[in-house]
Amino acid sequence: MTDQQPPEDQPRDLVGVGIGPFNLSLAALAHPLAGLSTTFYEQRPAFHWHPGLLIEDATLQVPFLADLVTLAEPASPWSFLSYLKERERLFPFYFAEHFHIRRTEYDAYCRWVSENLPGLHFGHQVDAIRWNAERALFEVDFTKLDAEGEAEALGRTHTRNLALGVGTEPYVPETLKPLAEAPSVPVVHSSDYLASRERLLTAGHITVIGAGQSGAEIFLDLLRARPAGHEKITWIARTEAFAPMEYSKLGLEHFTPDYTRYFHQLPEAARDSLAPQQWQLHKGIDADTISAIHSELYRRTQHGGWPDAVLTPGVTVRTAGRVATTKVELHLEHARQGTRSRLTTDAVVLATGYRERPLDGMLAGLDPYMRRDASERPRIDDQYRLLLDPAVTGSVYVQNAERHTHGVGAPDLGLAAWRSATILNSLTGKNPYPLPRRTAFTSFGLDRERALPPQRRPGLVPLSGHS
Question: Burial of 446 by CB count in 10 Å (0-12 exposed, 13-18 middle, 19+ buried)?
């Protein structure tokens, strides 16, 4: 499907940097808004969502309603159900009764949107962003890349507003970076798991580091691929337990707009102290995966003996190095127990998560205008806008770069459509997507009016005779 696009030299109303699920959601909801010109740039040649973790049968941890648009506009032609209708798969999906779809299917759905939605430019690397005070516009410099990822041409776009959706990047602990960068021993981040899987399976002994959902899924996949009695897998993690993710109904209300508003209104120090305590809301393992791991381990005991698999939480990797060029030696410490040991292994998978991709380099041209908090992080308002000097009349919106101001829901797919609608309501000033005033049964803070003690009226005496 093709829509008429404005000339390249005409300023846009909105330029998006990055085309992951969040900016793809924004583009999909912006598409039907008359008179709004948008352009989105992505360095990669096509849409791919965590390709290294599209393990067979792995499912999303959110229901299919957490697609790009439904929770803001159920009638959108870019919904997951519209995708199924286009593929003539509505009835099979109806009878399958899958509330949580496979990751591969979510990836295919997003790719369908990205291939049909106008105004998306893949193979375009954004290099710099500046504010042009004379024209009252942002300047976006980019490099167009060829099929091999090499520079092909330079370009510049002007826009009244920006949306940064550059996503996260794999986190590799400092102690393991030299090994991860060396080609001789397979030390790979979970983001590259599927590309490295065949090589990993040839290793005599494998160690998985990290007790989140990715670590659990990789451990289970490796376990199922190894012969009983000869598994030779170790799974270690810093957390105190291989703990389940909080998935109770009221617990899930931390991923509602109501909680986001509550968190944003807290003082900075309160937000910073609260965030680390909430790890189990988003860093645990879903109960089905834990059950599948235990079932697989148990199945391997039915003929006597125990599987050759070691699962140890509460362990940190102090240092690491190569042994005889083909092995890795991990120096481990168990803080609670006060013990240290060494583990020699043939391959390591780092399920150590992701970190928000730094914006400082891209936004260097805006640095003089940016307002920062006590920790030098960008300040972000309740409309997901960077707080900038009033001299900048345009807005810079951020997606999945605001956990320090908006809480645990920042990277959650279930809030994608709501955040996109909030941004478009703010940008247009016309409220094209009316949003609910209340979304949770939980009241996360005291009503300030109700929290005040009742005032006694002058001259009244308590009827009970007690003061």
Answer: exposed
> 3-state secondary structure string, 89-147?
CHHHHHHHCCCCCEHHHHHHHHHHHHHHCCCEEECEEEEEEEEECCCCEEEEEEEEECC
Asked if 193 contacts 58 with a C-beta cutoff of 8 angstroms, the reply is no
* Structure tokens belonging to residue 6: 């404005």
3 state SS for 396-454: EEECCCCHHHHCCCCCCHHHHHHHHHHHHHHHHCCCCCCCCCCCCCCCCCCCHHHHCCC
Residue 378: the pLDDT is 94
Place of tokens 């949770």: 440
Strand pairing partners for 142? Answer: 126, 155
The Cα 13–Cα 161 span in angstroms is 6
- Tokens (6 digits) for 257: 């707009």
| SS3 call for 299 | helix
Chain-centroid distance, C-alpha 408: 10
Q: Which of 276, 338, 353, 316 lies closest to 175, judged by CA?
A: 316
pLDDT attached to residue 463? 37
φ/ψ of residue 215, rounded to 5: -60, -40
For residue 257, give the DSSP letter. Answer: H
According to DSSP, residue 380 is labeled: B
pTM of the predicted model as reported, rounded to 2 decimal places: 0.92
> What strands, in cross-sheet order, belong to the sheet with 347-350?
187-189, 347-350, 206-209, 233-236, 309-312
- For residue 146, count other CB atoms closer than 10 A to its CB: 11
All residue ranges of the chain with pLDDT < 50 are 1-2, 451-452, 455-467
The pairing of beta strand 120-122 with beta strand 124-132: unpaired
Burial of 188 (0-12, 13-18, 19+ CB in 10 A): buried
> Cα angle vertex 92, ends 88, 97, to 5°?
135
Query: Taking a C-beta distance cutoff of 8 angstroms, is the pair 122, 46 a contact?
Result: yes
